[in-house]
Structures are given as structure tokens and as C-alpha cells.
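Reminder to self: C-alpha cells first, then the designed residues, so the page reads top to bottom the way the pipeline ran.
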């Protein structure tokens, strides 16, 4: 059905087909007029030559008009067998077209050629390096995270977390993880902060329990030395013991104390044992497994999961949240990596190519079925019109060429036969 020029996307094609059809029909009509005109010309060789040429031109033009018209409709509306081929065979045409596209256009060689020309890694790199493009993508991905998290059924996720963590940390990987964390801890100097915190808390505890400690030490002196010794020296001994302990704690507090150095040396030795001693690693694994299997720790892990999930969902909704910032940073880092590392770009291109080639057979089958289904669902008349609008102009040149070639071939054949036989019966 034809639409107005403003709404018909095929208006230009329709005008072009109409113009070329009028040209081909006009040439055929002109050839017929020339044929009729030869009967009014004086008899002679040249008249007969022109007449034979015109006859052949008319026949050639009519034959090609019939052939072209029969592709899309019944010539002059007459249901001649094997005409209106496209409307009557659109299902078979759709299947053939689908097989052709999938087998000869959408091929492995063509896919590799296109990927090689596009350089997908460079396209991805430019996208990731452009904050104006990557930040909206990061925000869109962040907005999708809550749905992804919510799609995880909490009970299953929690049970999986509780079941997997003890297994993960109980093997050699758990000991290596602990060693790696401790190395990072030592490299950053945080181990000394922990040591200082422990010393400080110990001093606070001793200050708070000083009277109780005095009493306990005095009682112990009386128990060991008798009532007299306890009465004479108990309080003094308790005071001196507490003073000595506080003095030693004060000596430990400076950053260059020997005990701090010994603590750092011991920690380094323990890290090395975790990395090299299988028995030590196994012992740490058992301790971690038992700790994580404890109901209190399991409950704590579940609470951590719930809090983490809630925080992630809430933060992902904010355009200026940490999730968006983190994803934007990840995109930027990936873009920098691709820009600076030609090997990474090559690996990305090869990986993309490998995925597409792996999916190609399935995609070819689906593309063939899709084309066949689309063409098969077309209205017969609409299908013929769609195809004719796109190839009809070239087919009008077939009519034009048929008329001209017939005219020339008819004249040449007349001249040849006259030359050979001296006359042609017609």
C-alpha cells in the first residue's frame, strides 16, 4: 500500500521504478511504431533490414517484459502458469535467502575480516577512556546491581557463604591469604599500630584493676611465705611488681623499643612459616575452619552479608555513590591498560573473535530462520512490491537491453541470411 511522500519510506524507490518502467515501455512502443512505419516505406534492402530489426526488437522487448512482469504478478492479470513467482514462492524464497545470507554473507571468514578491520579493542579503549561515555555506563551498571543482588535468594546466598568460607580458608589457599594480608599489614606499618593499641589497652586495664592486682599479689605472698611475711612485705612486693610491669610497658611504647623489633621479627617469621611450612599452614587452616564453623561467627557472617547487601543496594542508587565511582575507576583503569598495552588489545580482539566464532554456527541457523520467517510472514503482494522496488529498476534495464539487443540481433541476422542465401522469406 502506497503512503504519502512524507510517510512512505520507499517513495524515492517508487518514483525511480516508475520512471524506468516508462522508459522501457516507451522504447518498446517506439520499436512497435518503427515496425509499423516500415510498411509505409519504399520497398528495398534497407527497408527490409530496418523492418527485420524492428520485428526482433519488438519480440525481444515483449519477451523481457513478460519475464520481468511474471516475477512479481500475472502478466495483464492472466493467471498463466509459472507467473507471479515471487508472491507464490515467498516461503521458498525466504528459506533460500536465509540460507544464502547465513552461508555466504555471515561466514567465519567475513566475521574475522570485519573484526580485524574494526579493532574492537581500540573502540572499547576509547569508550572507557572517555569519562563522558564511561560514567553514564558505570551509573547504568550500578543501577542494575540492586536487581542482580535481589535476584539472589537470601537464604541460599547465606547458606552458600557459611558453607564455602570454612572450606576456602581451611586449605593452603587460606594460609596464603592470611600470609598475604599480614605482609600487607607489616609493609604499611599497621602491625605497630596494633601493638601500640594492645599495650595501651593493657596499661588501661592495669590502671583500672590496680587495687585488685595489689590484693591478689599480697594474698599470694601470704600464701607462699606465711602470715608474718605477708603482713610485713605483701603490700611492698605487690607495689614493686606493679611498678616493674608499668615501667616495662613504658619502655615498650617508643617506636624503637627492642620488644617492638622482636614483635616485628616474630611476625615476619610466622608469615614465612605460613608460606613455606605445610604443617603450620594446616594448623592455621584448622583454627580458621573451627572459628568460622562456630555458630556465633556464622551468625556474624550472615549479619555482615545482610549489611553489605543493604549498603550496596543503597549506594548503587546514588549517582555520586562509591559504587559508581568504583566502576568509573575500573573503566578508566581498563582503558589505560588497553591504551598502553598492545598485547592486552590483541588478547581482547582474539577473545572477542573466539567468542563470536564459537557462537557463529548457532547465529547462522537463527539468522536463516529469522529471514525465512520474516519473508514467509509478508503479505504476498507486499513481498512482491518490496522486492520489485529494490530490484525493479535494474530489471527495467533488462527490458531496455532486450529491446535494443533484439533490434541489433534481428538486423544482423537479416543481413547475414541475405548475404548467404540472397533473400529471406518473411
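Designed residues (426 positions):
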Amino acid at each position: 500500500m502506497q503512503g504519502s511522500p512524507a510517510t512512505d519510506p520507499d517513495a524515492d524507490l517508487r518514483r525511480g521504478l516508475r520512471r524506468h518502467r516508462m522508459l522501457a515501455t516507451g522504447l518498446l512502443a517506439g520499436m512497435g511504431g518503427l515496425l509499423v512505419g516500415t510498411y509505409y516505406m519504399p520497398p528495398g534492402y534497407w527497408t527490409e533490414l530496418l523492418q527485420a530489426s524492428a520485428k526482433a526488437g519488438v519480440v525481444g522487448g515483449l519477451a523481457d517484459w513478460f519475464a520481468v512482469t511474471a516475477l512479481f504478478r500475472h502478466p495483464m492479470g492472466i493467471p498463466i502458469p509459472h507467473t507471479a513467482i515471487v508472491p507464490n514462492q515467498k516461503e521458498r524464497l525466504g528459506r533460500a535467502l536465509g540460507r544464502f545470507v547465513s552461508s555466504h554473507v555471515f561466514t567465519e571468514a567475513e566475521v574475522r575480516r570485519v573484526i580485524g578491520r574494526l579493532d574492537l579493542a581500540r573502540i572499547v579503549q576509547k569508550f572507557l577512556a572517555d569519562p563522558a561515555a564511561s560514567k553514564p555506563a558505570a551509573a547504568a551498571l550500578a543501577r542494575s546491581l540492586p536487581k542482580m543482588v535481589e535476584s539472589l535468594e537470601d537464604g541460599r546466598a547465606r547458606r552458600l557463604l557459611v558453607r564455602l568460607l570454612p572450606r576456602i580458608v581451611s586449605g593452603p589457599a587460606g594460609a596464603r591469604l592470611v600470609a598475604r594480608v599480614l605482609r600487607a599489614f607489616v609493609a604499611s606499618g599497621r602491625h605497630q599500630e596494633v601493638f601500640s593499641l594492645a599495650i595501651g589497652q593493657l596499661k588501661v586495664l592495669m590502671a583500672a584493676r590496680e587495687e585488685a592486682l595489689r590484693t591478689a599479689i599480697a594474698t599470694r605472698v601470704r600464701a607462699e611465705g606465711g602470715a608474718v611475711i605477708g603482713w610485713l612485705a605483701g603490700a611492698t612486693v605487690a607495689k614493686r611488681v606493679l611498678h616493674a610491669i608499668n615501667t616495662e610497658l613504658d619502655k615498650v611504647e617508643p617506636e624503637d623499643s627492642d620488644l617492638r623489633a622482636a614483635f616485628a621479627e616474630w611476625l615476619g617469621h610466622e608469615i614465612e612459616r605460613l608460606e613455606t611450612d605445610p604443617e603450620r599452614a594446616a594448623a592455621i587452616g584448622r583454627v580458621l575452619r573451627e572459628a568460622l564453623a562456630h555458630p556465633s561467627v556464622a551468625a556474624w557472617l550472615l549479619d555482615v552479608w545482610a549489611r553489605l547487601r543493604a549498603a550496596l543496594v543503597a549506594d548503587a542508587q546514588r549517582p555520586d555513590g562509591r559504587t559508581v565511582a568504583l566502576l568509573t575507576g575500573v573503566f578508566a583503569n581498563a582503558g589505560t591498560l588497553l591504551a598502553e598495552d598492545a598485547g592486552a588489545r590483541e588478547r581482547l580482539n582474539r577473545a572477542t573473535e573466539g567468542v563470536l566464532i564459537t557462537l557463529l554456527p548457532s547465529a547462522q541457523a537463527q539468522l536463516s530462520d529469522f529471514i525465512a520467517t520474516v519473508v514467509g510472514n509478508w503479505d504476498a503482494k507486499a513481498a512482491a512490491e518490496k522486492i520489485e522496488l529494490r530490484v525493479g529498476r535494474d530489471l527495467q534495464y533488462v527490458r531496455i537491453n532486450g529491446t535494443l539487443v533484439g533490434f541489433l540481433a534481428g538486423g544482423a541476422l537479416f543481413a547475414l541470411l541475405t548475404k548467404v542465401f540472397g533473400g529471406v522469406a518473411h
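Residues 11-88+379-421 form one domain.
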